[in-house]
Specification:
Helix 1 packs parallel to helix 8. It is globular and about 65 Å long. The mean pLDDT is 96. With 410 residues, the chain is an alpha/beta fold. It folds into three domains: 189 residues, FAD/NAD(P)-binding domain; 133 residues, FAD/NAD(P)-binding domain; 83 residues, Sandwich (Immunoglobulin-like). A hairpin with a 4-residue loop joins strand 7 and strand 8. Strands 1, 2, 5, 6, 7, 8 and 19 form a seven-stranded mixed sheet that branches. A five-stranded parallel sheet has the order 10-17-11-12-13.
Length: 410
């Protein structure tokens, strides 16, 4: 088996991996980027709609336009990358085995995990009924239409109001399909508000909240689906069933971080995010292995992925150069109204940005960071919704002597 040594190995060539690789390179170390697909760019290659880069570049770019800026910079800096290279294993000694036309063993001083996430399928959510053709995840349908010029259906129902599903409702409509409805089991949408307006309301596509699909009918192809209203425990309410004739069902029911490699390396995973537990340097529980992007926690805006991954790349470079990080003694815990907060551990010796999501939508909410009964930071959010990640910054001067921080909504 061939071997190769490198300062920083980045696994994944999407938005997170490219940003991490560029950051590491700019911090003076050798970098190797490993990507399993045939090209760099990740999922954004198929996202031909605009809306990317608003936070970072102050302009609305398509996914390919956004990614090309980073790909061009990788080429200009001559960062080596391997395509069509599947990472088969990673261990806690930062030894990577991958398969680019054979097997290659990569010995890295530090590793950045940037594998992204995958979609939940029908099997993950156990939708009952027949098993005909015409059932797709929203991302699969997006790939088929935008990259392969294949139309997936003509009469479509979408289960789940995640952003990909909302965007595909508009995309299918523009391609001439009839999108009958978007069905959401929650009492609120799980997508960005701008996508509700631009992708549903602008095209008069109905959104059924507190509903789910309870049956699928079809022999060879989907012929109809049945939806029903659900109660507070998400159980279908008898007598509320409604049948819709359609030939296609798209599933936009959530994303799962791709953490199989993380488990192999013995990395501690968080029960809510399904990503790694990290400190303020985005270092996981295994020293020298860092994580960023959707493999760490699912993001709503790619600009935040880029900024987060720049930190991961810089941290990985410092570790490779032998820099010692301070001990992370302060636990950061989600309190009332907060689903999760990240990083989960900090040292208190440097400024840090927290990322969090709330449980339920609300207006005029206070996001409060507390040390026991003492308020460390408070921000007012005119509008707080689970689909939109909230970021807040803490100054190191306010963190002295703290052992535990609790973040809650008031």
């Amino acid at each position: 088996m061939n071997e190769r040594s490198v300062d920083v190995a980045v696994i994944g060539g999407g938005p997170a991996g490219l940003s991490a690789a560029l950051s590491a390179k700019k911090n003076g170390v050798d970098v190797l980027l490993i990507e399993r697909n045939e090209s760099l760019g990740g999922i954004l290659n198929q996202c031909i709609h605009e809306g990317f880069g608003i936070e970072l570049f102050k302009e609305a770019l398509t996914g390919p336009e956004y990614m090309q800026r980073f790909i061009d910079e990788v080429e200009n800096l001559k960062i080596p990358y391997m395509l069509n290279s599947m990472v088969l294993s990673v261990n806690d000694k930062r030894l990577i085995v991958c398969s680019p036309q054979g097997f290659l063993r990569v010995k890295a001083k530090s590793v950045v995990l940037a594998m992204g996430c995958r979609e939940r399928t029908r099997g993950n959510i156990c939708v009952p009924g027949d098993r005909p053709a015409g059932i797709y995840t929203a991302g699969c349908a997006q790939n088929l239409i935008n990259l392969r010029n294949y139309m997936v259906g003509r009469k479509v129902v979408i289960l789940g109001s995640g952003d990909i599903g909302l965007i595909m409702a508009r995309r299918l409509t523009l391609e001439g399909a009839s999108v009958l409805a978007v069905i959401e089991i929650l009492p609120y949408s799980s997508g960005l508000s701008r996508n509700i307006v631009q992708c549903l309301e602008d095209y008069n596509i109905p959104l059924y909240l507190s509903h789910t699909v309870v049956d699928i009918k079809g022999e060879r192809r989907v012929e109809s689906i049945t939806i029903a209203q659900v109660d507070e425990q998400w159980n279908p309410i008898p007598g509320t069933e409604k049948r819709m004739e359609c030939d296609t069902l798209l599933l936009s029911v959530g994303l799962i971080p791709e953490n199989e490699l993380s488990r192999q390396a013995g990395i501690e995973l968080h029960p809510v995010t399904a990503g790694a537990v990290v400190d303020e340097y985005l270092q996981t529980s295994v020293p020298g292995i860092f994580a960023s992007g959707n493999v760490l926690h699912v993001h709503d805006v790619v600009d935040w992925v880029t900024l987060e991954s720049e930190l991961a790349g810089k941290s990985a470079a410092e570790y490779a150069k032998g820099v010692s990080f301070p001990e992370s003694k302060i636990s950061v815990i989600p309190g009332d109204g907060v689903r999760y907060v990240l990083p989960q551990r900090i040292s208190g010796e440097k400024d840090v940005t927290l990322s969090l999501r709330v449980f339920c939508p609300g207006r005029d909410k206070k996001i409060i960071v507390k040390d026991g009964g003492k308020v460390v930071k408070k921000i007012l959010k005119t509008r707080a919704v689970p689909s939109e990640m909230i970021r807040l910054s803490l100054k190191s001067k306010d963190l002295g002597g703290i052992k535990e921080l609790r973040v809650e909504v008031e």
